[in-house]
Structures are given as structure tokens and as C-alpha cells.
Design brief:
The protein is α/β, with parallel strands linked by helices. The protein has 2 domains: about 1-95 and about 265-350, 3-Layer(aba) Sandwich (Isopropylmalate Dehydrogenase); about 100-135 and about 160-260, 3-Layer(aba) Sandwich (Isopropylmalate Dehydrogenase). The chain has helices at about 10-25, 40-45, 50-60, 80-90, 115-120, 160-175, 190-205, 215-225, 240-250, 290-300, 305-320, 340-350; strands at about 1-10, 30-35, 60-65, 95-105, 125-130, 140-145, 150-155, 180-185, 210-215, 235, 260-265, 270, 325, 335. The protein is globular. The chain starts with a strand and ends with a helix. It binds 3-isopropylmalic acid and magnesium ion. Magnesium ion binds near residues 242 and 246. Magnesium ion (MG) binds near residues 242 and 246.
Amino acid sequence: MKIAVLPGDGIGPEIVAQAVKVLDALNLNLEMTEAPIGGAGYEASGDPLPADTLQLAKEADAVLLGAVGDWKYDTLERHLRPERGLLRIRKELNLFANLRPALLYPELADASTLKAEVVSGLDIMIVRELTGDIYFGQPRGISTLPNGEREGVNTMRYAESEIRRIGRVAFDIAMKRNKKVCSVDKANVLECTELWRQVMIDLSAEYPEVELSHMYVDNAAMQLIRAPKQFDVMVTGNIFGDILSDEASMLTGSIGMLPSASLDANNKGMYEPSHGSAPDLAGKNIANPLATILSAAMMMRYTFNDELHALKIENAVKKALAQGYRTADIVTAGCKKVSCSDMGNAVLAALN
Ligand code: IPM
Ligand code: MG
């Protein structure tokens, strides 16, 4: 099994090193090869997604990614910026299904900014479409109008087939969970998402056991804070999913806890924490590696179909938390505050 390891920028290398350590300890003969992406790709070869990196990712069975981005690249031309490398690799590998599970570990109920009773028992799967929507829609750009002022344009668009295939992913996942799908849109204003809603309704006829509901995105943002446990599976487009998944992550105590899987139609996948590169924390060995380690568990589950090792990693994370180990972002009174690498070591020790 070949894994392309793309640490990226900021805290990327530090957190990925911990996940690699954990994967190595499984003794599964995984062939892991590293390559640069994002700002690191730009530094190495003037391209946030170097051709060699893309080739490696295409040939691999799965990709493990850290994070991309740093303020120092914000002034580059748009196509050279780190984020563009990430968007391109998602598109090139056709990773249209982004799974972001927001799961509260009981030990972290006090780390959330919400009351423990609101979040305890939380287990939401956010299914975010990842290769369409306003992120990729044409036309786009900044141009100058005849009157001399500038205009910025992006286009929200979804073809029916794109909506249907992500809907299917959500319904299939719901069948293995509590059989509830909440589709999030803005159908009262945006035609693109009016179509989204129609397609979801059509599709639901194939899943009579699944209860489909619809929610406008503004209400969904509010309900996530008010009563998050009402949700089982949420399915939504690229931009709404980007925003709602950051929001949902805070229910779990810290964005440092939220893993993700981005899958193509054959379950080839890229696995990355849902958080960013946090340049302010980089190089200090204080970031939380658990989202990345939990992403490695998702890799075992979804690409390698290896539930046993997925659970093994997840249980090791639970054990490290139960033993009181906490990185700075999730530390509460009475716990042991540890560094990024020591959290990795705690998971490693719990694994054996
Ligand atoms: C994410 C990130 C990315 C996105 C950025 C870095 C391009 O926020 O994975 O959620 O918007 O998809
Ligand atoms: Mg995001």
C-alpha cells in the first residue's frame, strides 16, 4: 500500500510526523513517500502543486496531507498561492466527497466553549461536496468595468450529476448510522441550491429508510450551536460545508480534533485535518496532532477497508485523552499539558 505524504506548510510537518509515527507502528508495510505541496511546493519548484507531487499522489493508494498556507505567500499571484495547490489536487484526483466527522470525546466535554450538556454525545458526519460550487465555477476573476471601477466575480454552479453523487455518499453513510440526512442549502434565494434540494428529494426515493430534512444554511449555523445533537448526517455544497465544518469543530472542543477524508468514486482518498496551517503556532511543537492522527484512522477505514486498524488508532487516541494528555488547545484544569510530539508519543504508547 502506497501513501503519498504531503506535509505542506506551517504546523503541517509537525502534525504529519506524528501521524506517520502512528502509521509506522501498525507494521502494515506501508510505503510512505514525502513530497512538497502549498508554500513548500512553491519554494521547491515555483508551483504550489509540483508536477512530481501530483504524479506521486496519482500513483499512491492514499494521500496524507498536513496543511497549506502562510501569510508570506498572500501577495503572490493567485495561481501560485498555497491554497490553489490544495484546490488543484482535490480537483485533479476527483475527490468530490469530503467527510468531516464532528465527534465529541467525552473527556473533552469541558474543553468546548458550549455547555457540556449541549455537546456531550455529539456525533455528526458532515458530508461536504469538494470539487464544485463557487470554489470552481466559471466565470471568476477581478476585472475593470467600463466606468473604471473594479468588479469581483465568482459563480455558484452545480450540475445535477454532481449533486446526485454527493447525495448518494450522504445517504449511504446515513444507512450505516442513524438514518437521518439533513441537506443544507439556501433554496429560498439561490437557484443553484434550489436544484440541490430538488435532486436530494428525488434521490431520497431510493432510500425509503432514511429520513431526509432540509435546512437553510443560516438556520443550520444557528442550530449547530443551539442543539447540535439533532444532526446525524449533514450534506451540503463546498462553501457552506467549509463554513459549517469549522463551526462544528468547535463543538468538539477544538478544531485540532477534526479529521477529514476526501474521497473519489472508488474510495481513493486524501486524508487531512480540517484545520489550517496555523503559521503562528508553527515550529513551536505545540500544535494538536490528533486531527491528523484521526485522519490516518479514516484512511484505514475508507481507503484500505481496514476497520480493525482504524479502531485501533481511534482507541489509542481515546486512551491518551483518558490518561489526561492534552495539547494547549484542549487543556483544562487537572490535565497534563503536552507538546505536539509528546501527544504523538502518548498515542503511540497507547497503541501498543
Ligand atoms: C478547508 C480549507 C480550504 C478550503 C482552504 C485552505 C482552501 O479551509 O479545507 O476547509 O476552503 O477548502
Ligand atoms: Mg475550511
